């Protein structure tokens, strides 16, 4: 069977695959543009998106605002008419400014995770930008969509459900990860029922997209059979020619074995999935002083005085210095990647009819 396009209101992606946002510096214009060109949805991560800008050290916020436009325009050029959007963490310091800037530059979609984006509908009001929250539980889906309905009489354009096999920050408890993996299909079915109920109330279809551990075409077919309209994949796109991360970062994926991917404690207060290395060993028993605060997270999500290490610094180090001494986020399937490929080859494989 051929894959059906992903239809989000009037926005259409030929292939129902969204490339998950990867910060810092992993999903920028080259990767997002290439994915969009192949018919998927390419997503730029706004997390310190301007780290390569000259003014970044002096004024990270300004550098990030500038880079949002530069990276988006470049991705759109590469995409040749394809769909490009942003991933913004709701926990970002001055989150509202990031959302407004992404709308201003013409984002096709905005996907918000790492916290519940309670005022997102208000921030995109009057624009063509489609919005999606990332949720990991039915409870979160109900609370957020209920709130959007009550406050704004609006609903999501689509919903991304992120399961516990994903890379990066996870919306699950670290000590019950295996249980969460076992329960995820049931949770997903409940979320789909909740989202469909909101869809009926608003007389529209709200696509549900599953993320976390999706690797092959049969994985995609499986989630479509559960009632999803598409999938979000991130890890699979890291070791491609187009991915914006440096070679050393990609090499750490190639070198990783199954037992090398594990759960870490992030100062954001959520667990994260990453490649075990010298840095992840160090943070088990050491507090790493903050070299410089770049105000990446809101005060509610980062207590500058008590955090064990700076999340921004260590994610930046992973793309600017030696990844082995930094935090390399990766999904549970990263060990399956054995060699570098291209975005086109991945799409050729995923779109081959079973
Ligand atoms: C290196 C890396 C960085 C990530 N950074 C972010 C991020 O900044 N914000 C976010 O919402 N999700 C982030 N994620 C999660 C992905 O967007 C995606 O939902 C998830 O990894 C999907 O699972 P998969 O990697 O198994 O395909 C990241 C994932 C990886 C692997």
UniProtKB/TrEMBL annotation:
It comes from the Bacteria. GO terms for molecular function: monooxygenase activity. Residues 174-201 form a coiled coil. Keywords: Coiled coil, Flavoprotein, FMN, Monooxygenase, Oxidoreductase. InterPro entries: Aldolase_TIM (IPR013785), NMO (IPR004136). Nitronate monooxygenase that uses molecular oxygen to catalyze the oxidative denitrification of alkyl nitronates. Acts on propionate 3-nitronate (P3N), the presumed physiological substrate. Probably functions in the detoxification of P3N, a metabolic poison produced by plants and fungi as a defense mechanism. This is Probable nitronate monooxygenase. The lineage of its organism: Bacteria, Bacillati, Bacillota, Bacilli, Lactobacillales.
């Amino acid at each position: 069977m051929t894959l059906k396009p992903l239809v989000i209101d009037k926005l259409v992606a030929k292939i129902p695959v969204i490339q998950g946002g990867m910060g810092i510096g992993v999903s920028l214009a080259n990767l997002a543009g290439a994915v969009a060109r192949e018919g998927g949805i390419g997503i730029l991560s706004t997390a310190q998106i301007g780290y390569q800008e000259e003014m970044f050290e002096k004024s990270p916020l300004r550098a990030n605002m500038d880079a949002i436009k530069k990276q988006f325009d470049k991705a759109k050029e590469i995409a040749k008419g394809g769909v490009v959007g942003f991933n913004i963490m709701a926990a970002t310091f001055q989150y509202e400014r990031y959302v407004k800037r992404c709308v201003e530059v013409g984002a096709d979609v905005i996907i918000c995770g790492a916290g519940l984006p309670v005022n997102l509908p208000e921030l995109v009001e009057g624009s063509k930008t489609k919005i999606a929250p990332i949720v990991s539980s039915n409870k979160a889906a109900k609370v957020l969509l209920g709130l959007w309905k009550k406050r704004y009489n609006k609903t999501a354009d689509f919903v991304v459900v992120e399961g516990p096999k994903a890379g990066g920050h996870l919306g699950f408890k670290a000590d019950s990860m295996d249980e969460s993996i076992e329960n995820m299909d049931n949770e997903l079915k409940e979320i789909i029922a909740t989202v469909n109920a909101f869809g009926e109330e608003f007389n529209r279809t709200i696509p549900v997209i599953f993320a976390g551990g999706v690797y092959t075409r049969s994985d995609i077919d499986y989630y479509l059979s559960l009632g999803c309209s598409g999938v979000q994949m991130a890890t699979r796109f890291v070791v491609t020619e187009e991915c914006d991360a440096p070679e050393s970062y990609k090499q750490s994926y190639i070198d990783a074995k199954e037992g090398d991917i594990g759960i870490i404690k992030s100062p954001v207060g959520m667990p994260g999935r990453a490649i075990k290395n010298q840095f992840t060993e160090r943070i088990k028993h050491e507090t790493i002083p903050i070299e410089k605060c770049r105000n990446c997270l809101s005060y509610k999500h980062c207590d500058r005085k008590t955090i064990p290490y700076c999340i921004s610094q260590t994610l930046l180090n992973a793309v600017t210095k030696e990844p082995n001494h930094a935090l390399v986020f990766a999904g549970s399937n990263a060990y399956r990647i054995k060699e570098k490929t291209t975005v086109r080859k991945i799409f050729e494989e995923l779109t081959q009819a079973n």
